Amino acid sequence: MIKRIVDSYSSNFISSWTVLILDTVTVIGAFVLAYFVRFNFNYLVIDPVNVQIQIVSTSSAYFLSFLAIRSYVGIIRHTGLSDVFRILKAVGISLGILILINIVLVSNDIKSSFIVPYSILILHFLLSLFLLVGIRVAVKLFFIQITRQFTKEKIPVFIYGAGASGMLTKNALVQDRAYRYDIVAYIDDNPSKVSKRLEGIPVVTPFRALRPSYIKRHGIKQLIIAIQGIHPEKKKKVVEAGLDLHLDVKVVPAIDYWINGQLSSQQLRRVKIEELLERDPIELDSRNIREEIKNKVIMVTGGAGSIGCEIARQVINYGPKRLIILDQAESPMYDLQFEIVNTRVYQKYLNRIEFVIANVKDKLRMDNIFDLYRPDIIYHAAAYKHVPLMENNPYEALMVNIFGTKIVADLSIKYECDKFVMVSTDKAVNPTNIMGASKRIAEMYIQSLSYGTTKFVTTRFGNVLGSNGSVVPLFRKQLESGGPITVTHKDITRFFMTIPEACNLVLEAGAMCNGSDIFIFDMGEPVKIYEMARKMIKLYGYEDSEVEIKETGLRPGEKLYEELLHNKENTLPTHHPKIKRANVSTLPYNEICSFIDSLTELIVEADEYALVAKMKQMVPEFISNNSVFEKLDHKVERR
Q: Which pLDDT score is estimated for 412?
């Protein structure tokens, strides 16, 4: 019966005008009570005529203040600090008005019943504030307690962080109507908070809370990380400790993502695998990058891809004169255009952004685009990158990764661009596949162009988390469909970076280059794909035994370990600790061009084996792995 009543009225709210009237009645009652308190409840000494006149003037002042401040518009059952502040402001202004009236009347020797004793005014102010706030809080607590009685399930949780964000998280959880969250404890490292209580909830150390015995005794099911800006390494340790204890670990999103500045329990999200691989935050020389980009015409090829679109987003924030985002993929370009057009922070730059559909291997089209826009800086991210696909389609790999890069680089020289920044890959080092070898040849060509005014730079890094075709989105899809998760080999390892981190470093490397450089990014420690799969299973709340990890075998061209440097290469430091300059040998421009001309002739003949054989001749360290082209390795005469 009670549940039906609660359900039927829970979606109904008292109108603002009703709240205004009730607040005014409360103010009137508080005034009468103030008089009784002032005269020790001896009503015989109170002049009822004066009281009636003063009630009119006092309640009128409060009524007008309520209207001006709009303190009555909040939903009472969801009263928060902002509502309390509005009430305080309204009653404070009312008190000021009434005191001012007293001063004016007294200074002009006007004897009037409108003069309210200051003791009454002060008492009335305090009582009104107490009652207006108290009634709202009482209604809120009553509503929470009533609705919590009928929630589906009780969930005991820890909140990691006993600060302001932790308190707001607690408030959001207790107001949740779908589940009855039981906040067992706050976890905090601050010794001045430990062993104290916040609103009756104890604050304990991580050592005490994150123990199997404590978890079992209190039946903890969730660990919610509520600290804003927690250090990545610390966050990783907390998350892994929670996962090892079979807890459902969630995080509070950044304040910028709270809806209308308010947090709700529905906004809590699962920890992402990217957060377990985060390293120390990268500190960029923003001033240097801004000086590089501001008021320049910037072109991003492959601008609708994972790396290209993030480079474009970051470039926008540095105020370019014009940004040309170029890609051949129509649908991803439309999605990026829709995102940028509908993102408030980009609104003021929309007249500077051009979305261009074009293919980098179309020389005539690219020439027209360069002639039209005259870019100052090129960020060349256009490339085919999927190893097995390119192993089966070497023609396309060469056309885009080599000849497309050559076309854009040559046009950069023709139209006197300041800089050309190429996005390369660790698969170009000791390549075992067509994709990696094609990127290495592109690197070699770029390095040979050091004779003109255009500065060329290559940035080389490993896999980026969450990019199109990477293992993370694949694992997510497999987990959401119930498994199994597939890995090609139990021992396969890869270097990983987040997309924003990689693009930050691309911009930084582009700003620091002085010539034909190859920059290597600090990728941290290599990560075992098998272990990443196990962590993702835990992040989704499964046990290892519930989701199978299935080995499918190495794909064509795939190798177990990636490298960032060739055996004969070494690095030199730069001013940025995450970026190293590779000391890489290269071939003269004429020799590179001769090789590429040979590839052009073979492209026309469409002989894939001849193409790959020529690539192996150009890149002696290119040894095929798990590929039909392995038989060429014993026949090719290396340079």
A: 95
